[in-house]
Automatic annotation (TrEMBL):
Keyword set includes Repeat: yes
UniProt name for this protein: EF-hand domain pair
PROSITE patterns given in the database record: EF_HAND_1, EF_HAND_2
UniProt-annotated stretches for the region Disordered: 1-22
Record's keyword terms, sorted: Metal-binding, Repeat
Signal peptide: none
Length: 94
């Protein structure tokens, strides 16, 4: 899964939830809950390994280490090699 596919997946889910009358995933509380699923150690940053594991837990076992690294790198605006909640939030906002 590439960075665009990752963001697209959340936007698609947002549209589906909106169509069902549920609040959109862009709601910050829902985004925090989603981010927490990726942030396995709860330190506020998602590593490529955490990203890969979370995707596998959601049923996407095709995400490789290099793919996870590419997604994190694409979202990592401060260059620390990790995805913070703010970086995640910006990516789901479009």
């Amino acid at each position: 899964m590439y960075a665009g596919q990752f963001t697209s997946r959340f936007r698609h889910r947002d549209r589906l939830r909106h169509d069902e009358g549920a609040p959109p995933v862009a709601d910050i509380e829902q985004a925090k809950a989603t981010f927490a699923k990726f942030d396995a150690d709860g330190d506020g940053r998602v590593t490529p390994d955490e990203f890969k594991s979370a995707m596998a837990a959601m049923g996407d076992h095709l995400v490789t280490g290099p793919m996870a690294e590419a997604v994190i790198k694409a979202k990592d605006s401060d260059g620390d090699g990790l995805m913070s909640f703010d970086e995640f939030w910006k990516s789901v906002q479009g």
